[in-house]
Design goal:
By secondary structure, this protein is of the alpha+beta class. Helices cover about 15% and strands about 25% of the residues. The chain has ten helices and 16 strands. The protein has helices at about 25-30, 50-55, 220-225, 250-255, 340-345, 350-355, 365-370, 375-385, 395-400, 465-470; strands at about 10-15, 60, 85-95, 100-110, 125-135, 140-150, 160-170, 175, 180-190, 195-205, 230, 235-245, 280-290, 310-325, 325-335, 425-430. A hairpin with a 6-residue loop joins strand 3 (about 85-95) and strand 4. It starts with 11 loop residues before the first strand and ends in a 55-residue tail after the last helix.
Length: about 525
């Protein structure tokens, strides 16, 4: 979409010098972008803290009770802060535009489409980011930052929209929409001197209305089209409500892995998609590959470590630091996600909140949860598969360091050519691997012989539940020198699954690819 009145699609670049006045704040600001601003765009000022609180807290950090939450409610505090809940991350080479990579981060889970009059939206007080590491140190080299601003046109009505919503191309706005949310996108990198470079990709970009129903939002995708922006540098961007693309038998998974299907051979049927009918808020950005690789080019050698990047998404909120009577506002990460299901099934309850607020570069502290996964023991107890339960270097390699060159799988995903890579939870993507056309994509990804599928990045179609369950059961273990499953039912290892094999709605073959959300009027509540 070309520029329209009230909407800026241009780029503005400025360089900032690292802030050394406050070590913690400086670290966040130089790696995560500009200081926090309020929903009206003003920089947040220092906040006076009540004396009683100051006396009790001393030099502590005042953090809201919703400090950490991520990935479909898998951390203890998630229900208190769903607008910052990062549910899933996807990264893949775009089949219809192979010189680009598509990065998708979803937030605000379990959206009942009929949830009015206060329909779901992004938070104005959360900084949403999609981060790219192209050097293997677990730190952001490229960050795309999204900040939202919400306005109510008529505060005297309870209605989300006052009539049928249409798009006025001349005015560049939606008609009859009472609650309007716009956003700014910034790209944050570093120059050769380590200074932060912030480029504004677009500002005052529209999010589309939620899919209310046939009276309010007929021909819904026609309302989505104006909210898909194409920039001069080849970047595309979208932010708004979509159908939740993750599919899983939630009920069976968390009822002690009591899947509705049962062996032998029935793991591929009978599951109930616990996310069927729900929506999420999607942030999708499609970028030229050369803009995120460390060589500034489109890689062609899949064996070169420079071909891989690591991706994760995060959400941060402004908090107050109190120290010696002084107070400063800084950003605190409250949610993050790279590889799917890690915090859900590998990280124990007592560490889930810590995991969410930790940076990927510090993930060595969680390594034992990868090398000695609790899930392997549960699978063995349920099905007598005989999966290795300790020393799981296969899991720590694939999920924490990236697959090195000359490995048994034939596909490197690490970004480090020599030495020890930093253990960090990143969704690693080898961008030299050609993309499989949408119509030919197999849900089992690399296990089905498709090198561009999970765990090489993550496509929307990839059945990460089945793939990771089989990986924990040991199907990839021999490639890393570990024993194969050797229990009485070892043959079941490559058949494990939750019985849900596809999303409830077909994905799109054009950007932003995530399926159309269901309408509120047509929604049938879950029984």
């Amino acid at each position: 979409m070309d520029g329209s009145r009230g909407t800026s699609h241009g780029t503005v670049t400025h360089t900032t010098t690292p802030d050394r006045r406050h070590p913690v704040a400086a670290a966040k600001r130089t790696t995560k972008g500009p200081p926090p601003v309020s929903s009206n765009g003003r920089r947040l000022r220092r906040v006076a803290v009540p004396l009683a609180v100051t006396a009790a807290a001393g030099a502590a950090v005042l953090v809201p009770s919703f400090l950490s939450a991520s990935s479909h409610r898998e951390a203890p505090s998630i229900s208190q802060d769903p607008s910052a809940d990062n549910t899933d991350v996807y990264a893949f080479r775009s089949p219809d535009a192979p010189n680009t990579a598509t990065l998708i981060a979803n937030f605000v889970p379990f959206q009942e489409p009929a949830g009015g009059p206060n329909f779901y939206r992004f938070s104005d007080d959360v900084k949403y980011e999609i981060n790219v590491d192209n050097t293997g140190d677990g730190k952001d080299d490229v960050t795309y930052e999204f900040r939202f601003d919400t306005k109510i046109k008529n505060p005297a009505t309870f209605l989300y929209n006052t009539n049928k919503v249409t798009y006025d191309a001349k005015r560049g706005e939606y008609t009859n929409l009472n609650l309007v949310q716009t956003y700014t996108v910034r790209k944050i990198t570093r120059d050769s001197k380590g200074r932060t470079v912030v480029t504004t990709i677009g500002r005052n970009l529209l999010t589309p209305p939620n899919n209310v129903g046939a009276r309010s939002t007929p021909d819904y995708e026609s309302l989505v089209a104006p909210a898909i922006y194409s920039m001069k540098d080849g970047t595309k961007v979208f932010a708004g409500q979509r159908d939740d693309p993750f599919y899983v038998d939630l009920g069976g998974t968390f009822d002690l892995l009591g899947f509705r299907s049962a062996p032998p051979g029935a793991f591929s049927t009978g599951g109930v998609d616990g996310l069927r009918g729900y929506s999420v808020n999607t942030i999708a950005i499609q970028v030229p590959i050369k803009s995120i690789t460390r060589t500034k080019s489109v890689p062609t050698d899949a064996n070169a470590t420079s071909a891989a990047v690591g991706v994760y998404a995060s959400a941060s909120r402004p908090v107050i630091d109190i120290k010696k009577g002084d107070s400063r506002v800084r950003w605190q990460q409250v949610s993050r996600l790279g590889e799917p299901l890690v915090n859900e099934v590998l990280i124990p309850l007592g560490k889930k909140d810590l995991w969410n607020r930790s940076d990927p570069a510090n993930d060595a502290q969680f390594e034992k949860n990868y090398t000695k996964p609790e899930l392997a023991g549960i699978i063995n107890a349920l099905y007598d598969i005989g999966a290795p339960s300790t020393g799981r270097v296969d899991l720590s390699t694939i999920l924490l360091t990236g697959i090195p060159p000359n490995n048994g799988l034939g596909l490197p995903t690490t970004q480090v050519a020599s030495g020890k890579p930093v253990k960090s939870d990143l969704l690693r993507l080898n961008l030299a691997v050609p993309p499989t056309p949408f119509a030919q994509q197999d849900r089992l990804g690399l296990l089905a012989g498709q090198a561009d599928g999970f765990p090489n990045g993550r496509r929307l179609v990839d059945d990460v539940v089945d793939i990771e369950e089989r990986a924990v059961a040991g199907v990839l273990a021999p490639a890393f020198g570990l024993p194969a499953p050797n229990g009485g039912n070892a043959a079941l290892a490559p058949l494990l699954g939750d019985g849900v094999n596809a999303n409830d709605k077909p994905f799109l073959d054009t950007f932003p690819y995530v399926a159309t959300p269901g309408s509120g009027f047509d929604s049938v509540p879950h029984p």
